[in-house]
Design brief:
Blueprint (H helix, E strand, L loop, with lengths): L3 E4 L6 H15 L12 H8 L1 H4 L4 E6 L8 E6 L8 E7 L8 H15 L4 E7 L3 H9 L3 E2 L9 E7 L2 E5 L1 H21 L12 H16 L3 E7 L5 E9 L8 E9 L8 H15 L4 E7 L3 H8 L3 E11 L5 E10 L2
Parallel strand pairs: 4-5, 11-12
Antiparallel strand pairs: 1-2, 2-3, 3-4, 5-7, 6-7, 8-9, 9-10, 10-11, 12-14, 13-14
Helix pairs in contact: 1-2, 4-8, 6-7
């Protein structure tokens, strides 16, 4: 099910969604009210004027396919006083539940948090809300020490993968282990990244050693993501055009996320990191190519990239079968 996610704290549907959330919340807490006017002041303000109440925050809405109006919402609160950003007000209208909308909203919120550079995300949930609690645990949230002393409230936190730029020495140090493993995993998973299966770890390591040389010459930049256990779980590289008339341009190459780390917005975060660096260093145009119909296309389209065209039989997949490739570009600034 393809749920449409939009960021809009001023959407006319949002007050109704927030009102329904707060009215049910009050009923579950044993202090029911029948109208928005009866809500505590802080909740009433959110339902009556969410654009003002969440002026500093990210508000996401989800619309199921075929519908005209959003059926769910979530708020990613801006971090303050050094605390991790907090996810709040996750709500899906009863008639639209069990269609993946809540997970789509959470995934989008986690992507926004990761792209902002946050090290973790936190949230609270009443212990009687079994389905939301199960969803949060599936997404990797764990119970932590309470920062809210209200009875029956569970405090959860999810660490986000740390994305760091690698020096040439870093690339060489990781070439035969973490980086090679990422490349082998991608080929084993069917990704068309320039190699045929089976890819031997030694061949993968040799390729990364060459990348270290390019990094040393200033031709390629590399960023890698480490999981909470320190293992490399993702990587992306940015290659700068060498021709004098193309120095405004760069190419995103080898965006890899280990299969065990997918579904938590890491690809989006790696891509956003490379894009931000490209813009900060004067590049105004980025290009890339990816196998037509691959899951990566959804990532690039969702990140604002534009398809420029498709070339049939451009490159063989790991099994050696020629596949079409779609070219993408993105203007920066």
């Amino acid at each position: 099910m393809n749920v449409t996610i939009e960021e809009n704290r001023s959407h006319p549907r949002l007050p109704d969604l927030l009102a329904a959330y707060h009215l049910l919340n009050q009923a579950e807490k044993g202090t029911p009210v029948t109208t928005v006017a009866g809500l505590p002041a802080v909740y009433r303000a959110e339902a009556e004027d969410p654009a003002t109440a969440f002026a500093a925050d990210t508000v996401l809405l989800a619309t199921p396919p075929g519908d005209d109006l959003p059926a769910g919402c979530v708020v990613l609160k801006a971090p303050y006083e050094g605390r991790a950003p907090e996810i709040k007000r996750l709500w899906v209208a009863p008639e639209a539940r069990r269609k993946g909308i809540a997970q789509a909203l959470m995934t989008a919120a986690l992507r926004r948090a990761a792209a902002s550079g946050a090290a973790a995300v936190r949230l609270t949930v009443w212990n009687w809300r079994e389905e939301p609690l199960a969803l949060y645990r599936r997404l990797g949230f764990e119970t932590v020490a309470s920062w809210d002393e209200r009875p029956d409230l569970v405090c959860l936190e999810k660490p986000l993968d740390a994305v760091e730029r690698l020096t040439p020495e870093d690339v060489r140090a990781h070439a035969s282990a973490g980086l090679a493993a990422l490349l082998v995993d991608a080929v084993d998973g069917g990704a068309s990244v320039g190699f045929l299966a089976p890819l031997e770890p030694a061949e993968a390591a040799a390729w990364w050693t060459g990348v270290a040389d390019e990094t040393e010459r200033g031709v390629r930049d590399v960023w890698a993501a480490q999981g909470p256990d320190g293992r490399l779980v993702g990587v992306v590289t940015l290659v700068r055009a060498g021709a004098a008339n193309g120095r405004h341009r760069g190419e995103i190459a080898r965006l890899l996320v280990h299969r065990s780390a997918r579904g938590r917005g890491l690809g989006y975060r790696l891509l956003a990191t490379a894009e931000a660096h490209a813009a900060a260093t004067g590049l105004t145009l980025l290009v890339l190519d990816t196998q037509t119909g691959s899951p990566a296309e959804r990532l690039y389209r969702g990140a604002g990239w534009t398809a420029a065209g498709t070339i049939p039989d451009f490159a063989a997949d790991p099994a050696g079968v020629p596949r079409a490739t779609t070219l993408y570009y993105k203007r920066l600034g």
